[in-house]
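Quick note —
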Amino acid sequence: MQAYWTRWEKWMQKHAPKLPDTLNPGVAPATVDALERLIGSKLPADFKSFYAIHNGQQRVKTGLVDADQLLPVEDMITQWHHWKNVLDSGGFIYNEEIIASTPDTGIKSDWWNPLWIPITSDGFGNHLCIDLDPAPEGQYGQIITVWHEDSHRGILAPSFEAWMHQYITAIEKGEYVFVKKWGIVHKDTFLNYND
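Predicted structure written out below.
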């Protein structure tokens, strides 16, 4: 997974030289163990190898993933607790019926599942997640979208490594640009403008 970080940091050095300063050092194994104990499941090896190099990024306005923060494991735990508290308090039940999402094939129809681990955040309850509890047609460790006010749950990639490959390749091809106010954003997004 070092190759992905090397490519990403090389792009950042060229297009956003201050952005690598937002990267955290590699995650401590004990922190990963704490997350795995909390969720009662093992995280994919590709994810752990990637985070051993950099534990996401600091909380800054400029995001690494389409304007969103690449969460450190400690913040994944915090976000997981927020969602779990809503689940446990009945927040995903309306008129005594469980609220369902409208997922892509391969994702369960939960509004949120305790084995959907947030890996990015826009600060408003929207995440990309590692799905450790896929539907039968899905894959363990697939990367999915979870927007708190949108019922659709989409699959972005079949694994963490596949997602990294897709994203970093798209960055290198010029499909993403650096915007000072937001960070790395898709070139066609409304966030790509000059103030």
